[in-house]
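Query form — protein Assimilatory nitrate reductase catalytic subunit

QUESTION: What is the three-dimensional structure of this chain?
INPUT:
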Amino acid sequence: ADQNGETLVPTHCCFCGVQCGMYLRVDKGGKVFGVEPRNHDINRMRLCPKGINAYQQVNHPDRLTAPLMRRSRDEEFREASWDEALDFTVSEIRRIQAAHGNDAFGLLGGASLYSEKTYLVGKFGRVALKTRHVDYNGRLCMVSAAGANKLSFGIDRAANPFSDILLTDCLLIAGSNVGECFPVMTQYVWGARDRGASLIVVDPRETAIARTADIHVAIKPGTDSAFFNAVLHVIVAEGLTDESYLAAHTTGWEEVRETVQAYPPSRAAGICGVPEEQIVQVARTFGRAGKAMAFHARGVEHHSQGVENCLSIINLCVATGNLGKPGAGYGTITGQGNGQGGREHGQKSDLLPGGRSIMNEEHRRQICAIWGIEESELPPAGTSMMEMVWQMQRQEIRGLIGICNNPFVSLPNYATVKEGYDALEFHAQFDFFLSETAANGHVVFPVTVWAEDEGVMANTEARVVKHNKAQEPPPGVRTDTWVMCELARRLGVGDKFDFPGSREVFEELRVASAGTVNDYYGITYERLEETGGIMWPCPSTDHPGTPRLFEGGRTYHPDGKVHLQVVEWHAPMDPYTEEYPLSLTTGRTVAHFLSGNQTRRLGALVEQTPRPWVEVHPSHGFRNGDPVRVVTRRGSEVFPALVTEAIRPDTVFIPYHWPVPTAANALTIDALDPRSKIPEYKVCAARIEAAARI
Ligand code: SF4
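ANSWER: The structure tokens for Assimilatory nitrate reductase catalytic subunit are given below.
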């Protein structure tokens, strides 16, 4: 403490996958009241507007400080005691499961939770609720990249640390508004540029990062894999592949090479709406670079062909031998704070801790031994988040607990989502603010914010970092861990949930991940505090971690090869017609985070960006601020126009952080990628028309 009794608690920002280090300022009364920069390896003192303002949520007047409860949606919420809210929840779980089976109750987690809590969500769902229906909101985020990573590499994380960006000769960024969504990551881009690296940006919008690129390719939404197949076509035609690398380290290259023959630039230019010469220019720039890296985010992944899109970029990197070397590699830029860690420990419907498959007998045996349950007691794989909503509509799922998510804003096709949640006989949410989704439930459990508990997150680089507790929670508030353990105790399985806090959960998580490619065994809280972060896999407590995943030819499929996958492009799921001739695409803006439940309450961020808008090209004849109705097959809403040449004439863009009546996701389509089950947020058919008023 300084002379004023104030202390600085080292921790990390909660708001995106960069995971910038920061200090929270704590007053002599033990309350968080500010933020200081921290010279952490990731961010070197820098923070973006979200990071600077994040502390304001900790003691925000909107915090929930007592459980809210009502027995029917016709009633108003009233404050309840913890005992009453917990007992009501347990009685509803028992009633619904006795009448309709265990799978009639579902659990949805989130990827902004600490990894300990994501581990506990998976265990709580399978062991306490005994249901197959466990999934999480990372299903709306990085699952296409995860699917592609597993197929190609047998491991699901970025190949390189951020610092490798500084060493590259060519950086390709596809479908990522880095400057607004991951602002502090741009320091690495500028560092590479200072060394003379080329920058290629592929994005339908001229984002801030695109404006600075050597080549900005403004492809039509939903055409990514056609574009990257064509780039690879040119790379093959011009002899820019690394044949010795391909022969030694890969399978499937012949089939991929054969497939891309059908994607000459002349064909792809028509599909993607870009000049043929630009495809050739990208191929030559990337293919001739000594060391090249490719990063992508939701712009590539949020598609009914999201896995294929990611695979087409992996094919490009591997075919040019850009893997396993300093300054050469590949990665997805994770969106949520724990977007990487949140998908590793078993809250996904098909996964168990350590990235194990719930369909694999050996993996099931291993986890049952750790959890102390019979193999017959472990439920099979469930369905994905959006599919669970459809099951709610059909009343196959009748009860639900949601933790750290806000589907009323974040899921596509709001009308369907509302209908699904309204059909639930019982719905509880854990949250620290009354989100739009929580406000529709029967019980709301008030839980801690990130600064009131300790735990780990894994950032975009798969660097596991430790968040520290900066203040005691307000009276009446509990940790998500405590609530899950208490519910488990009341459901009769308390002996399997004897976790006083995050540390004890982390110890079980370490053991549960040991021996997998996702190995955390060598990571301890003490080591994280000493080092500032360790990149997994880290199999022993004297192992330094693995910053560069494929260094020295290391691979993770049992045959020691990278498995290249054939990719064929197909048209997006929502067809264009005369009535719906435009593409609607959606995304984020710098001041807000995901569903906005947190950032729409923070003064400076609201002042910066108080409301959404629709970006339209000047050719449509609107002026800035004109009310524009955006119409899709799901509905219509009115937004003020932001007229800009930074968007294609055939495309409109809306940021999605707001609820109805200005919700981009009231308009988006709930079509899913068949493999990753990610929704097609980034393209649907639309039209725009002048509206009377907003
Ligand atoms: Fe937080 Fe991400 Fe901004 Fe860093 S870049 S301060 S982690 S929101």
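ADDITIONAL NOTE: The pocket of iron/sulfur cluster is lined by residues 13, 15-16, 18-20, 43, 47-48, 50-51, 182-184 (CB under 6 Å).
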